[in-house]
Amino acid sequence: MFKAIVSAETLTSALDSVSVLVDECKIHLEEDGLEIRAVDPANVGMVDLSLDAAAFESYEADGGLIGVDLSRLEDIAGMAESGQLIQLELDEETRKLQIQIDGLEYTLALIDPDSIRQEPDIPDLDLPAEVVLEGKDVNRSVTAADMVSDHIALGVEEGDEYFYVDAEGDTDDVHLELTGEDLIDLQVGPAHSLFSLDYLKDMNKAIPKDTEVTLHLGEEFPVKIYFGFAEGQGQVTYMLAPRIQSE
Amino acid sequence: MRLDEYIEDLEPDEEAERRRLAKEKSYEITDHLEEFERRFDDALSGDTLVGSTSPSIFVGRSNYPDIPVGLLSPVGDEDDAEEYVTDGDWYRQGYAIDDVLQRRTSLLNSNKRANVDSPSIASRLTPSVHDAWEGFVGVQREVAIADRPVDLEIGLDDTPDLGIDPGTDVATPRGPRANARNAELRENPYVPKPVKKTLEDDDWQAQGAMTYLYRRGFDVYDINSILSAGALGETEQRRLVPTRWSITAVDDTIGQFLRGRIRNEPSVDEVQVWVNEYMGNRYWVILAPGSWEFELVEMKAPGSIWNPNPEDDVWLQSASEGYDGRSSYVDETAGAYYAARLGVLEHLESIGRQAKCLVLREVSDDYWAPVGVWQVRESVRNAFDGVPGNAGGRESLAGEYGEAETFHGAVAQVAKRLPVSYERLQRKSELAAGLQSNLDAFSRSK
């Protein structure tokens, strides 16, 4: 059983943060909210999302599992105007999702969850540095780096205590330093890793500019990117494997 | 063989010798053109070329979609028509740049303009070339799908322009051109069964049909010609495709097919460096363990074509893709990217492995005329296979590889032999900067 009413913004934000990595996903319809875990086919980028029942106008579920085509569902959600509510209801008989937006009814065929790639185990990483910054600073870093290169280095300078972003291109460079004053919080530790901008650009699209973003970093280790949406009732954790410079 | 010993074997002196020979030979082209003119006069009867034979076609792209469609024929050398077809045989026979130019400039391109999807007035109502077997375009399509040169008679509108088009980076150079009035078959061309099958199936997407032909043993050169003539794909989609575009389309399509085949294969288990040299180009192919990733970096020496000013710095261009391939056409390296990628994927598919692969292409000033992207394809293909029978007196390391401990160690070592520094390479190359790891490598499992 699943029946829920949610604002278009909240649903769209949730779907967008997953669709940057995969085309289809499994959605766990838990009693206390939705959960999605997915990894891209190359096993490079992972998303772990939860959307609490409190983020919905109304929410009823009892632990079901559905598989959806994300771009389909995003297209439908995109039919709603800002501020409109979307009603979702699972038809257990037909295994289809009934979607209603202000009188518009859409019946969405679901995908057999067994046919969707297995959900990833979340790696247990020991990441020594933690950086808390505003979404707009993540956006600024990624956008500037993309002008000169296809990859970006993220690191923490332990001595002078700052977080830095480096991008080296064929001819041009980008460098950004954010000290304790520019950041919301910083826990220094040995950290320097290179990441593909292809992935980071996509993840950045899903990060609200006015939200608080927490980065966990290590040396040639994946980055963990955590942020909230829907007034803190939705949580997204991305994990991205680095490009290795030393081997 | 250890990588350092492997690299030791590259003899710079031989290169210098070849350079000297290449320069001498380039003057022969002028003599050759005069001979062509004489042969052409002999073959012309009135304004019709009688007893001609055509091994291949050329579809231009100027003024698209009203493009020049051409029949290529080796005037006065009909008995050896097969030799004029651009394919892997040219590499196997050790053709040098001037051999290619001689072959190509001996081919008369008799062409006529046609619309890509409605070549005749009759077909304007249903724009697609799939039923066009009459007239000039029809004859041209017959030649494209036949498996050997076709005898025909071509009526010319005027005497040919003997000027030579030096070619581009993708298509092979072209020779003299003439405006054709008509063409008639002098025999019933033989069309291989699989080609008939793709031709007759009008509900088969072009990509699937191309892959089918490839699996049936047709090389990309044959498929390119068939695609160019609009002889495969869904009926309404069939149209004439400029040769230059179809070369890249076929390399890309077959490459995607092969990439799919190795997607779930185990990775190579050591870092290997392969090298091959051909026509003033040197190719380093570095394979490393891990999931599929590919990059081509081109270094064009000052004084080579595309970088003609001898005072300029080495030109660098690169393009790369990750495990899932690219979502956009490459901006830099163009058709060479897909040709090199095909060569690598064919090797990996044949050994049932995937790998991370960096191809470094050095273009020296010996490369004085572009011969077409087939040169890239064959050089990379044969880096793994070696030079058959030491063709053309070429000494080569092709077919052997050097081993290295790490990918970046191998790149650093190879960089000592490159015209650019390791630092500059790292700035330009996505793979030299860092290899994409995956999350499994960091799982300590919860």
From TrEMBL, chain A:
<dbReference type="GO" id="GO:0006275">
    <property type="term" value="P:regulation of DNA replication"/>
</dbReference>
<comment type="function">
    <text>Sliding clamp subunit that acts as a moving platform for DNA processing. Responsible for tethering the catalytic subunit of DNA polymerase and other proteins to DNA during high-speed replication.</text>
</comment>
<comment type="function">
    <text>Sliding clamp subunit. Responsible for tethering the catalytic subunit of DNA polymerase to DNA during high-speed replication.</text>
</comment>
<dbReference type="Pfam" id="PF02747">
    <property type="entry name" value="PCNA_C"/>
</dbReference>
<comment type="subunit">
    <text>Homotrimer. The subunits circularize to form a toroid; DNA passes through its center. Replication factor C (RFC) is required to load the toroid on the DNA.</text>
</comment>
<keyword id="KW-0235">DNA replication</keyword>
<comment type="similarity">
    <text>Belongs to the PCNA family.</text>
</comment>
<dbReference type="InterPro" id="IPR000730">
    <property type="entry name" value="Pr_cel_nuc_antig"/>
</dbReference>
<protein>
    <recommendedName>
        <fullName>DNA polymerase sliding clamp</fullName>
    </recommendedName>
</protein>
<dbReference type="Pfam" id="PF00705">
    <property type="entry name" value="PCNA_N"/>
</dbReference>
<dbReference type="InterPro" id="IPR022659">
    <property type="entry name" value="Pr_cel_nuc_antig_CS"/>
</dbReference>
<dbReference type="GO" id="GO:0006272">
    <property type="term" value="P:leading strand elongation"/>
</dbReference>
<dbReference type="InterPro" id="IPR022649">
    <property type="entry name" value="Pr_cel_nuc_antig_C"/>
</dbReference>
<dbReference type="InterPro" id="IPR022648">
    <property type="entry name" value="Pr_cel_nuc_antig_N"/>
</dbReference>
<dbReference type="GO" id="GO:0003677">
    <property type="term" value="F:DNA binding"/>
</dbReference>
<feature type="domain" description="Proliferating cell nuclear antigen PCNA C-terminal">
    <location>
        <begin position="183"/>
        <end position="242"/>
    </location>
</feature>
<feature type="domain" description="Proliferating cell nuclear antigen PCNA N-terminal">
    <location>
        <begin position="6"/>
        <end position="99"/>
    </location>
</feature>
<dbReference type="InterPro" id="IPR046938">
    <property type="entry name" value="DNA_clamp_sf"/>
</dbReference>
<dbReference type="GO" id="GO:0030337">
    <property type="term" value="F:DNA polymerase processivity factor activity"/>
</dbReference>
<keyword id="KW-0238">DNA-binding</keyword>
TrEMBL record, chain B:
<protein>
    <recommendedName>
        <fullName>DNA repair protein</fullName>
    </recommendedName>
</protein>
<keyword id="KW-0227">DNA damage</keyword>
<dbReference type="InterPro" id="IPR006979">
    <property type="entry name" value="Nre_C"/>
</dbReference>
<comment type="similarity">
    <text>Belongs to the Nre family.</text>
</comment>
<keyword id="KW-0234">DNA repair</keyword>
<dbReference type="Pfam" id="PF04895">
    <property type="entry name" value="Nre_C"/>
</dbReference>
<dbReference type="Pfam" id="PF04894">
    <property type="entry name" value="Nre_N"/>
</dbReference>
<dbReference type="GO" id="GO:0006281">
    <property type="term" value="P:DNA repair"/>
</dbReference>
<dbReference type="InterPro" id="IPR033167">
    <property type="entry name" value="Nre"/>
</dbReference>
<dbReference type="InterPro" id="IPR053546">
    <property type="entry name" value="Nre_DNA_repair"/>
</dbReference>
<feature type="region of interest" description="Disordered">
    <location>
        <begin position="157"/>
        <end position="176"/>
    </location>
</feature>
<feature type="domain" description="Archaeal Nre N-terminal">
    <location>
        <begin position="21"/>
        <end position="307"/>
    </location>
</feature>
<comment type="function">
    <text>Involved in DNA damage repair.</text>
</comment>
<feature type="domain" description="Archaeal Nre C-terminal">
    <location>
        <begin position="321"/>
        <end position="442"/>
    </location>
</feature>
<dbReference type="InterPro" id="IPR006978">
    <property type="entry name" value="Nre_N"/>
</dbReference>
